[in-house]
Amino acid sequence: MSLSIVITSLCFCSVALAFPDIHGSVQTREEQPNGFRPISPKVFVISMFTDEGEAWYGIPEFDILAKNITVPGISPLFPQVHCTSNDDVCQVTTGEAEINAASTISSIVYSSLFNLRQTYFLIAGVAGVNPKVSTIGAVTFARYAVQVALQYEIDAREKPQGWNTGYFPQGSSSPTDYPSELYGTEVFEVNEQLRQIAISFAQTARLNDTADAKSYRALYASTKSFAPGAQPPTIIACDTATSDVYPTGGLLGDAFENTTSLFTNGSGIYCTTQQEDNATLEALLRAATTGLVEFSRIIIMRTASDFDRPYTNQTILNNLLDEFQGLEPSIENIYLAGIKVIEGILHGWANQFEAGIKADNYVGDIFGTLGGEPDFGPGSIFCRWQRQNSKEGLEI
Prior knowledge:
The chain is α/β, with parallel strands linked by helices and 396 residues long. It has helices at 3-12, 50-54, 98-109, 192-202, 211-218, 250-263, 277-288, 316-321, 327-347, 349-353, 381-392, and strands at 43-47, 67-70, 80-83, 89-93, 120-129, 139-142, 144-147, 152-153, 167-168, 187-189, 235-237, 239-242, 270-274, 298-307, 364-365. The strands form 2 sheets. Strands 1, 2, 3, 4, 5, 6, 7, 10, 11, 12, 13, 14 and 15 form a 13-stranded mixed beta sheet that branches.
């Protein structure tokens, strides 16, 4: 299908939200009994696998397992959304990788069980980390999420002479060219004002660290460019890369560093690598187009569990298989930093967060789907389409 047809469909086709015929204890909006009110959480925590989800269970601040709601369509391994008794905070575990994340989040946002129009979404998981930027145990907050695997790929053993990677943008002829073919999920930008507020809350936390993590990060001190990787964990603003493939090694790390910078027009800082965020953000963006969520209420928090490349003289395979480099403190720091963010939102709800945090930056995807002009990529395809067709008439 050509891009013009896609745009035409988006602009002129009405979208009907279809609710499946659900049997059992869960009912559709039309079938709910009189007096039913959907759950309207102030904060919705999004975890990806068991350890991340369990970071929130049994904590002293609130009981996230007070309510357990079975939601059709979410992961069969994690079939329930968990909420506090007052519905202020909910949490779900999506399952790992992009398909699971998109499927679970889509099922939730279109469920009649929830009203998410004023909800803040806290993506809270672990990630690999670039030692040029940060270290294991650190807590990162992203402005950009970049789908780095959405490119052409040549097996590195067959890459053209002089190239340091087999990855290069779709529709281009080299790793330095901007992609000429876009799918729409390459880059998302979230609310920078909200990110800075979340960082200020998280900075009040005392982060966890372990002797094993300290010993491991010290191995990176001998490489000058890896100096940040040898430092103690901190709260840091830097960006995240999404790929279903679990990458490791300096060549792939440098390739994704280049992709992050290229796709964001030099604004993004490749820091963490994970498998879900662009999928989660696309599901939330589509819900935002019909007013079911507000895209400016998303926080991307990733704690660093392992390095994305080896230290000097370590083999790539050993780096990959030694996956518990900083897992323990990274899981603990999801809670330690995340609870400060949640409490900040809850305590400031009436006088600040209920009305929303106004974004001073562009917020949305690379297409400009929610309006505005992206400060990365080629610019809004919708604005460009409107300009062209106001002059030339509609062409399909």
